[in-house]
Structure formats: structure tokens, C-alpha cells
Amino acid sequence: MSTQQPKYYVFNETRMCFLSLGVTTADTPVARLRGLLGRGRYRDDDGLWVVPSQGIHTFGMLFPIDVIYLDAGRRIIHCIEHLAPFRIAPIRTQSDSVLELPPRTIFGTGTQLGDQLLICSPEEMHGYWKPETDSGVLTGALECPGPGLA
């Protein structure tokens, strides 16, 4: 019996665009150790959110990835485009978590240092876009806690 891991959306609130619609989490020691090992490639909507993390490696991987380091408030503090297999990414002590995304995600979305990301379930994202009935202003779940943070 296999349990399907929940998928999260990654939305760049600064640039108003999605980085991914299918991020899974690596939020246990075993999951962080396993990471992306054994995958032949990344689909465009795939991603891995490593929580907690101050750095990653690509030993044993067969494809490059884009890497985004996030602080505790999910603001981007460091980016690496096209990190090749069998490399060690730098340690960033102020990092709370790291996103591993398909190559060209950073470039394709115009994502930059300082951008604010929202990482949440599809249901929470729906609430984010739900119009406020009183003022007509878009509002909603700006604080999506994510795995183990609720």
C-alpha cells in the first residue's frame, strides 16, 4: 500500500506567476537523503521542496536542476540556474528550505533574488484568488504553512 504524497503549488507573488504545480516535500531525514535519486528526468510541473535545508547536492542525479534557497518567510535569498549532476551547491546559513525545480524554471519565470514565494496546496491557492466579498480586492490564504509547519 503506497500513500500518495501531497503536491504543492509554488507561486511567485512578486512576479505573479507559477513556478510549479507539482512540488512534493522532502521533510524527513530519509526523504531529504533520497531527494531526487532514481529519477530519470524532471517533468515541467515537478519539483522538490527540501525542508529544512541550507544546501543540496546533485550526486547520483542524471539531469540538471534549478535551485532556489528560501528564508523562513519564503523570500528568495539565493538562486542557481542549471546546477549540473554530481555537484555540491553552496551552503546558505540563512536558508530555511530549498526548492529543486526543472532547469530553466528560474529564467522562464523571471524569478529573482528577493522575490516572495507562496507554497501551498491547490485548495489554499484557490482561497488566495477568491475575491473578498466586501471590498472586491483579491485576498486569501497568504500564510500557507506547508509541511510540518501547521
Walk me through what this model shows:
The chain is α+β, with helices and mostly antiparallel strands and 150 residues long. The chain has a single domain (8-121), classed as Jelly Rolls, CATH 2.60.120.1140. Helix content is 13%, strand content 28%. It has helices spanning 29-34, 105-109, 122-129, and strands spanning 8-12, 17-26, 47-50, 65-70, 76-83, 97-101, 117-120. It has a seven-stranded mixed β-sheet. Strand 4 and strand 5 (76-83) form a beta hairpin.
Set out the fold topology.
Blueprint: E1 8-12, E2 17-26, H1 29-34, E3 47-50, E4 65-70, E5 76-83, E6 97-101, H2 105-109, E7 117-120, H3 122-129
Parallel strand pairs: 2-3
Antiparallel strand pairs: 1-2, 1-7, 3-6, 4-5, 4-6
Radius of gyration over C-alpha positions, nearest whole angstrom: 15 Å
Q: What percentage of the residues does DSSP assign to strands (E)?
A: 25-35%
Shape: globular
Q: What number of domains?
A: 1
For the sheet with most strands, the description reads: 7 strands, mixed
Give the CATH architecture.
Answer: Sandwich
> Would you tell me the overall average pLDDT?
82
Distance between the termini: 26 Å
CATH superfamily label: Protein of unknown function DUF192
Unreliable residue stretches: 138-150
- Secondary structure class reads alpha+beta
In what order do the strands lie side by side in the largest sheet?
5-4-6-3-2-1-7
Task: Tell me the total number of β-strands.
Answer: 7
The run of helices and strands is EEHEEEEHEH
Number of helices: 3
Helix amount: 10-25%
Using the coordinates above, name the CATH class: Mainly Beta
CATH third-tier fold name: Jelly Rolls
